[in-house]
Amino acid sequence: MDQDTAKKLLVEGGTFVFLGVPEETQFGIDMQCWNTDEDFRGIKMIPPGIHYIHYSAVSKGTGDISPRSGFMHYFEKKEFMVKMWDKNMEDISKDEISEESIQRLKDNLLNIDKHLAPYPYEIWQKWKLLTSQITAELAKKLSPINGLIRASVDLLPMSDKDRPRGVKANESMESDSELKGCQSGQSTSGQSDAKRVKRTTREEKEKAMLPDLKPAPGAAMRFTEIPQDKYPPGSTAEEITKHYLDQSYTLDLMISQHDEPLHIIGELQFAYLCFLIGHSLEAFEHWKNLVVLLCSCDEAIHKHRSVFFHFIRTIEIQIDEMPEEFLADIVMNKNLVYKKLREFFRTAYASKVDGRLQTMIDRFKENLTQKLQWDFTGLDNDEEDERPVIVKLNTE
Prior knowledge:
Helices cover about 45% and strands about 10% of the residues. The chain is an alpha+beta fold. The protein has a five-stranded mixed sheet. Strands 3-2-5-6-10 form a five-stranded antiparallel sheet. Helix 10 packs antiparallel against helix 11 and helix 10 (about 265-275) runs parallel beside helix 13. The longest helix is centred in the C-terminal third of the chain and has 18 residues, at about 355-370. It is globular, with a radius of gyration of 25 Å. About 25% of the residues are buried.
């Protein structure tokens, strides 16, 4: 960090004071993490903007590390935040720090300063790219009500009446019988497709045997729900097929739940960081679902050019920061993300996207090929599992 930048951050940077943190606790801000020593009191010179504070308790006896917890916060210029460690809970304290206590710490800042680690400025430029569309309001909207993002969410205990009972044999037989009837082209007499008796698949049977545990109040992430119905009410069979092939309608529904279109990219960035830094598998699933959705649109590429412009910028740096084991899985197993990126490139060419957006897409595809040896040849050909399936109906 040059002297001018250091002087500016000393004057304008935020300060996070974390009191009572045990030695060897894992503590971090954004993409940097340390094990604290006995003199640790927090972080100084934090650039104004959104930041991710995270920590994990470490057992002195065994060295076991607890699941990571943390929170996102938008630091204003010169902001001074104080938090306490709860020794009994081995977590951040829920108690509010009084204004008088905060002021005493501010007055004693010269003595505290030597116990504050400087913000790792070398990560700042990359961090700004990873969080470019996350506003303070959006981070608050998506975070759990209690404000804490946890790798392992606290779950409510289950009562006996809520315990899984499985699927009754006769229900399963009826469902299987109906499934066979549908496969042979026979419809359920007197009922429309939408009102047929629900078929029970193998996955649903397995799910019925699992406990339906729910997060404790205020602990669940508040991601925007992706609509299950990909088409408008009253759609014809032809329209339903169209909306499944081109999910621009679903993307429009998602965007309408935000204050502005680019917040959908902010949510993509938020989910990714909750996975990458917060170790949340729920966040990873949501990130993956958003990538799949954005890669499954045709009309929306023209309607929301700015959204897709920032989608390319975001997904490019996200893949660059993706852990190697996830990248290996994408390549070796032709992961859904890889398949959807192929679909996205194919759609972009078919839609005749032009100008700056097409240039970005071309560069992105070339970078993936050069850096990761991802194969995007033969985009004009359908994948084996994407080819149309011809079903012969029994018309007799």
